[in-house]
Amino acid sequence: MPRGCAVMWRxxxxxxxxILAMPAPPVWAQPAVANFxxxxxxxxxxxxxxxxxxxxxxxxxxxLMASTSADRLKDVFQIxxxxxxSQYTDLVYARDYGKxxxxxxxxxxxxxxxxxVRFLYHVDNGAWRLIHIHLxxxxxxxxxxxxxxxxxx
Length: 153
Known about the structure:
The protein has four helices and four strands. The protein is of the alpha+beta class.
């Protein structure tokens, strides 16, 4: 056996040991979940709220939420019925936190108030889920004043 081959055969067990000793890939290195258009899903719910179609908004949101029923969301969305007709909707904030979280805020201009709808999406068990939906009214700020993560520093 030539000398180069003998050295290679002595290194082979060490290389095999290194491969076996490597840990499993970290969670952030897992394969990406299927593409999900959070803007489109959020826009659909927002348009339903702007049109004061509480049932359709609740049905669309409950499909994206794992543990919240449409009836419970209908109760929350009833607030829009007291604001009058909507004039327009506008996407005011969208942030993608990489492969596992998305934060989106729409503004709806009703006759009696501005309403901001915040959608927070997160990957849960390999699928995108709407984990939080927050309705907030504001009259004097371009965004709700307690949402400080939006305002520039």
